[in-house]
């Protein structure tokens, strides 16, 4: 299925609205948009309400201290 740029923008806006409606706690920001966009890229996922849901669930799930440190180190953050 091929879309024009205008159709893709309209589709993306509708998918985002679906996600926002189901997550009133979500506060859009440039940083969070980048984080979710990075998640979608890493998982080779198209922009859709379902994939936004998967990204949000993955990014907001509780993690152990060990997993947190492991994720930080994998991201290349210097730990002293």
- Regarding quaternary structure, what we see is single chain
How does the helix and strand content classify structurally? Answer: mainly alpha
Give the CA-CA distance, first to last residue: 49 Å
Q: What percent of the residues sit in helical stretches (DSSP H or I)?
A: 55-70%
What is the number of helices?
4
Unreliable residue runs: none
Number of E strands: 0
Mean pLDDT: 89
The dominant shape is elongated
Radius of gyration (CA) equals 15 Å
Q: What share of the residues does DSSP label as strand, in percent?
A: under 5%
Biggest sheet record? none
How many domains, in number, for the residues?
A: 1
How does this structure look, described?
66% of the residues lie in helices and 0% in strands. The protein is built from four helices and no strands. It has one domain (5-74). It is an all-alpha fold and 80 residues long. The longest helix has 18 residues, at 5-22. The N and C termini lie far apart (49 Å).
């Amino acid at each position: 299925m091929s879309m024009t740029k205008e159709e893709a923008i309209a589709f993306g806006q509708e998918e985002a609205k679906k996600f926002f409606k189901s997550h009133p706690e979500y506060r859009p920001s440039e940083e969070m948009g980048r984080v979710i966009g990075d998640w979608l890229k890493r998982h080779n996922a198209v922009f859709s309400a379902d994939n936004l849901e998967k990204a949000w669930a993955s990014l907001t799930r509780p993690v152990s201290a060990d997993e947190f440190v492991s994720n930080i180190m994998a991201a290349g953050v210097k730990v002293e």
